Amino acid sequence: MKVESVQKASFYVFLGMLCISINDLIVKKFSSDYPLHEIIFFRSSIAILLTLVLVKIEGGLTILKTTQPKLHALRALTIFFCNMIFFSAIATLPLATATALFFVAPIFITLLSIPLLGEKVGIRRLLAVIFGFLGVFIMMKPFTWSVSEIHPFIYFLPVIAAILYALMQIMTRKLSKSSKPSALAFYIQVTFMALSLIFGLIFGDGKLTDVSSNTSVQFILKGWIIPKGTDLPYFFALGCLAAGVGYFMSKAYSTAAAASVAPFEYVLLPLSIFWGWTIFGDIPDMYILTGIIFVVGSGLYVFIREKKKENITPPMPNQNL
């Protein structure tokens, strides 16, 4: 693999993670006022327009033709439910905690790249994966569940979302051989619009809002409301960010091998900690920080092994940005 390919991929990942961090910030801020399916619907309605511009740039509507419609549909469904599950988690958990737990995703990408992509992962990298899972266990703090106000299952939501995200990126790697990044992003936004509208038709009247007092459940079951005028710029920003994420991450995983790209996603951690601290006043405790060290350490080791295997120079994901 060429050094330039990994460097380009790391640059795209940084842009994608920046978009994701700001997106998560806005969604968490809106979680007390709007239902999740409404947020996703308006976000995707705007994002699909911007994505069509990218489609035009990359070749026009003809690039939307595909010989793998089922795989595209499965990929879009996977990322939709990944978003729904993760966003419901950040309605309850601190942003940094949810993000840190979600970062088992690169570990799953490394694991899944073995059977699904045929990429070779040695025993040392598999041990690093186990080390990463230990970090996730520490961040979940199971020894505090009996006295915590947060239901234990909420801690598993980011991990479930991470598994779905890993599967989506593996499918991206497969589909990128025949589809442009903008086409991959387009299919996702169409699916987001359709499914969020279906959720809105089912739960939009708000009759099920009081079924549970859990904030994550309420975030999904709330009724639709007309957005405030002051919130419209944020909805527009969500659309722009969603278009950016879909394009940049598709571009990243179509530029370099999954096991090489995945570790660069860790840049989302400091970004989420920063937003959580400055906007919501959430400061990660020692368990979260320790878990982050385990997870990031395992991811970096996986990359170092990949570097030695392919004899490439490690790029700096934040260089010249």
Spell out the key features of this protein.
disordered C terminus, globular, 321 residues, mainly alpha, 71% helix
Briefly say what this structure is.
By secondary structure, this protein is mainly α. 71% of the residues lie in helices and 0% in strands. It has one domain.
Class computed from helices, strands and strand pairing = mainly alpha
Shape, per Cα inertia axes? globular
Question: What is the helix content?
Answer: over 70%
Low-confidence stretches: 311-321
Question: Oligomeric status of the shown chains?
Answer: single chain
Number of helices: 13
End-to-end Cα distance: 23 Å
- Rounded mean pLDDT is 84
Q: C-alpha Rg, in Å?
A: 19 Å
Written description of the protein model:
The protein has one domain (3-310). Helix 1 (3-30) packs parallel to helix 12 (268-280) and helix 5 (105-117) crosses helix 7 (152-175). It starts with a helix and ends in an 11-residue tail after the last helix. It has helices at residues 3-30, 36-57, 69-90, 95-102, 105-117, 123-140, 152-175, 181-203, 215-221, 232-253, 258-261, 268-280, 286-310. Helix content is 71%, strand content 0%. With 321 residues, it is an all-alpha fold. The protein contains 13 helices and no strands.
